[in-house]
Amino acid sequence: MSSPLFGKFRSPDGKPHMLGAMQTLDVPMHRYADGEEVDYAIVGTGAGGGVLAQRLARAGFRVVTFDAGPFWDTERDWVSDEKGSHQLYWTNRRVTGGSHPLALGENNSGQGVGGSTVHWASFTPRLHPSDFHIHSLDGVGVDWPLDYADVRPYYELMELELPVSGPAYFPWGDPHGYPYGAHPMGGVGDALIRGCTALGIPVSAGGPVGILEGSRADRPHCIYRGFCIQGCKVGAKASTLITHVPDAIANGAEIRANCMVSRVALGSNRRVNGVFYFGPDGRELFQKAKAVVIAGYSIETPRLLLNSACDGFENGLANSSDTVGRYLMAQAGNVVLGRFDQPVRMYKAPPAHALTEEFYETDPKRDFARGFAIQTVGPLPISFAKQMMSAKGAWGWGLRRLLMDYNHWASFGLLGEILPHAENRVQLADEKDQFGLPVAKVTFNLGDNDKKLIDFGKNKVMEVMHAAGAEEVVQEARYAHLVGAARMGNDPQTSVVDRFGRTHDIANLFICDGSIMPTQGSANPGLTVMSLAARIADYLIIQGNAIFASDKRDMQTSPIRYDLSPPDTWGHGMPRPVNHLVS
Amino acid sequence: MTDTTARDADLRPVDPATGKPLGPMETPGYYPRYHTLDQQKFWDAKTREVILDRVNNVPPIRFFTPEQARLLEAVCARVLPQDDRDDAHKIPIVPQIDKRLYEDKGDGYRYEDMPPDREAFILGLQAIEQMAQERFGRGFLDLRTRAQEELLKALHDAEPWGAHDIWERMPVHRFFMLLVKDCAENYYAHPYAWDEIGFGGPAYPRAYMRLERGQPEPWEVHERRYEWEPPNASLSGEYESVAGQEEQYGSPGQGGTH
């Protein structure tokens, strides 16, 4: 290993590379030489790829992780400004259609190191135990090849690693508490607590959210400026850019930013041997790897597999089941807005700071399966203007007048479970992107259960807004959080990967992001994606060279590793025993 | 031709008590003497650079022809009217739309039934011009405000009276939403608009501290409301849901908020 060490993170002006207001990245980064084979090529640095790369690097594997966007310096690159933050989103071409077409862009994938965790609002609830078995319990969707118990220790670990702030006791699903205290309420949280309390609905104040309410190590606490989804310059909001990627680099991983992976290469014996990618200068290059992990979000992951079609996999790599791209899901994310007589100023405080999961589970008294959460959202002026356009049809002087009342409005989000449908899918369109690669075409339709759930949920959220004292309540249809499109399962005929993220078709090709989720519950998916990534990492680590040398599938679950967390995970926050840790 | 003086007076909002037009003024809205730009020394350097560039450097027109740009100016003047603002405090919209299209920057997706944004704007302007000629026998630029608004309201209501060949290629409600979205994205990105609506603006590294009860920060101001009505002739003060939105799961909104 005689490769040069360079790439010390310095700005051209000699200032340190900043990851938040205080945290710097001042370790040199290993660079693998051209032509050098690595153990793992990982595509994506977000919730899945970031956590996986960190753990594999700590365990001593040789890792290169690709991101299509830049390696952000939060001081140099990010702004406290809505319009100026467009660069954080995946804005390359895509086509969207179906009976209920999804708005993409700022609403899902990120582009740049940290992926979508850079612009998530960082609500970090867990799935409920029931989410893993909705077909057995409710006769809808599909069961996971995992139980809640498989993921629970990883939830606990990720809640420490991010860490997550929230109440000392969270009553829904598997009741639990959070390692950092709850946040204070902003105007929108006030309204949600008021409305829920008036109706006798239990509500969680101040989390769970992956935003520091007290400082930890070099990460300052939240300053309540409300620009969470524009990228947290403070460094209070967790993103893999600041939580896991620095530790990956410190342990020898190379992060290759501004590199767009175009194709996974199939070698001999139905095994992959690397990835083709477009480097920062636009040249197509090849990285040789003993195994490949795709972690590109639910649109780019299936797109990459479909674009990697080759002899033996004419319909897309690892797609013998014709399931790649299918069962794409988004949660119902209707935004309900209420106007209050007294000012609210909803731009202050993180958009994510209070929620209720009281309606999460299937209720036999309702005419649909599964349920929804109600959460705070805090749109900044441009988002609010767009919501008023679609909720009220406002334009012209009417729009000007409504926006003059911006400070009087509060907004809540429905977060409802939409079931997996085979026809909701990612395919390749005829048109090409700037690299000449076919772009993704996304098709989305609601089913009957979905429509009933949205109807009921939207009305319930409006009822809460009224109960909070709003004099006028309106809503707009919206969808959030794409998952699925490369789902995991036990049956190779109906799923793409097994319960360790390994593709059924190719023994050294893995998927490690939200794409593998068979269903989505009504919890924001980020924490689940990270927890699954840590679990997949433990499996890969214990399998060791067997992944590189053998097609044999060991389906034994490995014990959780508590020694792979980034520095400062332990010994901070509230003394909360982690379930499997007490010894 | 229309009498321009009378026309300008008609365009301003009205004080309902006196019936007199309001403005033009430096800052419409309910937050007197509130200027986010006064706080710029408390912003981080990059944010200050981006926002001052937006305020001080209006991009040149490079995508649209001069004729198209003039037509779009007239359209945007009704879609997001600024007649209550004095000339020094009008917020440039068309140059920013032009910049976006010149650089071919989009939101990251195109509806299956829509052409790419560049083509959508060109087609939409053609359709507006055709509809003006068809009903009024004049170009959109030469119409009185009321007629211009009638035409735009027909797009809003998804009931265009002409240019059907174009609306067959591009759903009218999607074009109208695109148009309003681009106007709103640029208007409400400007510090002058933040002053109007009482938005605190950038707050890093200083922070917000008064989170509760809608209290202003020490450097923000309390709201002072006044009554106003849209100009007498205007059709955009009242509105109904945009066509295509009646079904509650219809076209989704686009604000990324959770």
Topology of this structure?
The complex is a heterodimer of chains A (583) and B (258).
Chain A: E1 5-6, E2 17-18, E3 24-25, E4 29-30, E5 38-43, H1 47-58, E6 63-66, H2 74-77, E7 95-97, H3 134-138, H4 148-161, H5 187-199, E8 204-205, H6 240-243, H7 245-250, E9 254-256, E10 260-266, E11 272-278, E12 284-294, H8 297-307, E13 329-332, E14 335-339, E15 354-356, E16 372-377, H9 381-392, H10 396-404, E17 409-416, E18 425-432, E19 438-443, H11 448-467, E20 472-476, E21 479-483, E22 509-511, H12 526-543, H13 546-549
Parallel strand pairs in A: 5-6, 5-12, 6-9, 7-19, 12-22
Antiparallel strand pairs in A: 1-4, 2-3, 8-15, 10-11, 11-12, 13-21, 14-17, 14-20, 15-16, 16-17, 18-19
Chain B: H1 4-11, H2 45-56, H3 66-79, H4 94-102, E1 110-111, H5 117-136, H6 145-156, H7 164-169, H8 172-187, H9 191-197
Helix pairs in contact in B: 5-6
The quaternary state of the protein chains shown equals heterodimer
Q: Helix content range of the residues of chain A, please? A: 10-25%
What is the helix tally of chain B?
9
User: How far do the termini of chain A sit from each other?
Assistant: 39 Å
Q: Looking at the structure, what is the overall shape of chain A?
A: globular
Please give the domain count of chain A.
Answer: 1
Question: Mean pLDDT of chain B, as a whole number?
Answer: 90
- Low-confidence sequence ranges of chain A: 1-7
User: How many helices of chain A in DSSP terms?
Assistant: 13
**Taking Cα atoms only, what radius of gyration of chain A do you get, to the nearest Å?**
22 Å
Distance between the termini of chain B: 51 Å
Instruction: Name the poorly predicted regions of chain B.
Output: 1-6, 243-250, 252-257
In one word, what is the shape of chain B? globular
Largest sheet of chain A: 7 strands, mixed
Explain what you see.
- The complex is a heterodimer of chains A (583) and B (258).
- With 583 residues, chain A is α+β, with helices and mostly antiparallel strands.
- In chain A, 23% of the residues lie in helices and 18% in strands.
- Chain A contains 13 helices and 22 strands.
- In chain A, the strands form six sheets. In chain A, strands 5, 6, 9, 10, 11, 12 and 22 form a seven-stranded mixed sheet that branches. In chain A, strands 8-15-16-17-14-20 form a six-stranded antiparallel sheet, sandwiched between helices.
- In chain A, strand 18 and strand 19 form a beta hairpin.
- Chain A is globular, with a radius of gyration of 22 Å.
- The model of chain A is unreliable at 1-7 (pLDDT under 50).
- Chain B has 258 residues and is mostly helical.
- Chain B has a domain at 13-30 and 61-189.
- Chain B is built from nine helices and one strand.
- Chain B has helices spanning 4-11, 45-56, 66-79, 94-102, 117-136, 145-156, 164-169, 172-187, 191-197; one strand at residues 110-111.
- Chain B is globular, with a radius of gyration of 20 Å.
- In chain B, 43% of the residues are buried.
- Classes of the chains: A alpha+beta (583), B mainly alpha (258).
- Chains A and B meet through helix 2, strand 7, helix 9, helix 10 and strand 17 of A and helix 2, strand 1, helix 6, helix 8 and helix 9 of B.
- Strand 7 (95-97) of chain A pairs parallel with strand 1 (110-111) of chain B, so a sheet runs across the interface.
